[in-house]
Amino acid sequence: MIQSALSGDLPRSRILSFLLLAIFVALAFAPFLFSGSQPINTAAKICIFIVLVASYDLLLGYTGIVSFAHTMFFGIGGYGVGLALYGWGPTWTSAGLGLAIALVVGAVLAFVIGLLSLRVRAIFYAMITLAVASAFAILAGQLSEYTGGEDGRSFRVPPLLRPATVLFDVPFLGVRVDGRILSYYLVFFSALLLLLAALRIVNSPFGRVLQAIRENDFRAEALGYNVVYYRTVANCLAAGMAVLAGAMSAIWVRYTGPDTTLSFAIMLDILLMVVIGGMGTLYGAVIGAALFILAQNYLQKLMAIASEATASLPLIPHLLHPDRWLLWLGVLFILSVYFFPSGIVGKLREMERGR
Amino acid sequence: MSRPVLETQGLTIRFGGHAAVDNVSCAFHAGSLTAIVGPNGAGKTTYFNLMSGQLPASSGSVHLDGDDVTRLSTAARAQRGIGRAFQITNLFPNLSVAENVRLAVQSKSRAAANLWSRWDHHAEWISRAEHYLEEVNLQDKRDLAAAALPHGDKRKLEVALMMALEPHVYMFDEPTAGMSVDEVPVVLDLIKRLKAAGDKTILLVEHKMDVVRSLADRIVVLHNGQLVADGDPETVIALPIVQEAYLGSMPAAVGAGEAAS
Questions:
Q1: Closest Cα in chain A, distance from residue B239 (Å)
Q2: Which residues of B touch A226 (CB under 8 A)?
């Protein structure tokens, strides 16, 4: 059954299987395993980014398309659901309608960008997506009448998902099951289903052609594959998945704004997660997203402890000061690219084969 | 004679002012193997690229089964039955040998772009790919990455990709280039078997004259992008223009006996 759920694409490494299982269990029971709001926020963010990074890997790792417009689609999802809930009231109908509009807008944009520019060389395509994404971000910031501008929009979610909603009078496993927990599981199961769907797609005949195009588009064309068609469909699928990730994010954060969905910093984070986890494997997206977001949230705490512990030494406590966390993340990134060019998943599979 | 399977009329491509293929009209029929010969730079591979669609024609036309395909993309021509094996090996380097061939098999299927079925549940594709792997003797290396193969095996895989496409027109561009002496027969036998089937249209660019003479029903000579001779092998080889234009510039390719005849 697991084999079938994973579309026959097994982790092929014992350590990787263990890591994936650990992440799955931690995410599946996060509200019951950890207390406080930060762990559950982190868990939800990991779920959202797993979807976002997996969809980006569909482009970069599987099809070989370098796009910088992925956050734009993430933003379209976030703004679509967010603005609908803000403008039309906190009901499921407005959320659904907002999502539907966002999906259509996202797919049409991905189709047009793909059709117009997937014929050109990779570097030009990357530049075009960068330009379109920047234009979109600026537009979202300036159309403040509709989008709330740089401040974004805070909105209310449907009543069932609000923290004040308590589902059962008796606590379940010692935890009060409220709308917040329900929201979390909405995000969690959406992420799980989308990841399994993506696994299905990359292991379909279509997905194999994408890999052929990544490897040698010239030969794929000579074998009778219409490369522009395949690239365009991949572009639309990845965009649709990013829109859904954006919608999940909006439901969870109850806010949408340029900084949370459209900023170039998020685009860089996605790139790092794909590369650290391992390009061309969706498990890499899971590992990359989990590791990166954990580091983002807990590296500072860890450094604060280390900084205090070394307080008596010269210079070192300053280097370990929590404000320097980005420096150390950068160092970690360089080391991981240097030692695991095929990402953590690639390295783990290599080790398994070497046995 | 029956209608040609593949035909070019006045086919020309210019790069700047230079016509790399210049007004070439030629028809190829089912059941025959045509060798296209000529010195380096004569335009043989360019002529192939124009017919299989990798290059757009400046003027003239390409007809496949009577239809004008001059404006069709490479992929559309491949779907209509033009198969191509490249002179410079063109594989999917990081995919396995079996996967390379399977992708060629998959191409013409209706389910080629299916998003939801699993590739490994299409047993027929896998068994057909296996068949073509055996044809070129690569079945023992099916799980290796294509990039890991030695040069001769890459050439065989290159040919297997075209075979697995099951085209109407087979275009071999120097299939044995760079192969070791003991590997050449595998590919030559394959071409002979194709020819023996009797209904295939086979085009072969080849420098080795012994190979050309043992396989070809007909020889077409290109020189400076122009078609300078066309006919059965003995006649063409004996033509003065060929002696001068082709054999004269490549004396190493011909034995002393032929040069004298």
A1: 36
A2: 73, 75-76
Pick from A61, A211, A62, A202: which is nearest to B95 by CA?
Answer: A211
Q: Which residue of A has its CA nearest to B86?
A: A219
Structure tokens given for A95: 């959320």
Among residues A216, A203, A93, A105, which one has the least CA distance to residue A158? Answer: A93
Cross-chain Cβ contact A205/B93 below 8 Å: no
Superfamily of domain B1-81+205-261: P-loop containing nucleotide triphosphate hydrolases (3.40.50.300)
The answer to whether residue B99 neighbours chain A at the CB level (below 8 Å) is yes
Main-chain phi, psi angles of A247, to 5 degrees: -65, -45
* Residue-wise pLDDT tens digits, B70-87: 999 999 999 999 999 999
Using the beta-carbon criterion (under 8 Å), do B112 and A225 form an inter-chain contact? Answer: yes
3-state SS, residue A172: strand
pLDDT in tens, A31-52: 999 888 899 999 999 999 999 9
**Cα distances (angstroms) measured from residue A243 to each of A51, A276, A277, B92, B157:** 10, 23, 22, 32, 41
Where residue A123 sits, what CATH number does that domain have? 1.10.3470
Unique residue bearing structure tokens 């659904």: A96
Distance CA B128, CA B141 (A): 16
The answer to whether B259 faces chain A, any CB pair under 8 Å, is no
Residue-wise pLDDT for A164-217, tens only, equals 888 887 788 778 888 999 999 999 999 999 999 999 999 999 999 999 999 999
Chain A residues with CB under 8 Å of B117 CB are: 204-205
For chain B, the domains span: 1-81+205-261
Q: Which residue of B has its CA nearest to A216?
A: B92
Which of A7, A200, A216 lies nearest to residue B90, judging by beta carbons? A216
- The residue type found at A199 is L
Element (H, E) at B14: strand B6-15
Low-confidence stretches of chain B (pLDDT beneath 70): 1, 244-261
Measured in angstroms, the CA of B106 and the nearest CA of chain A are apart by 8
Report the number of distinct structural domains present in chain A: 1
Tokens 């279509």 found at: A206
Domain coverage including residue A52: 2-354
The span from the CA of A49 to the CA of A38, in Å, is: 16
CB-based contact, A196 to chain B, within 8 Å: no
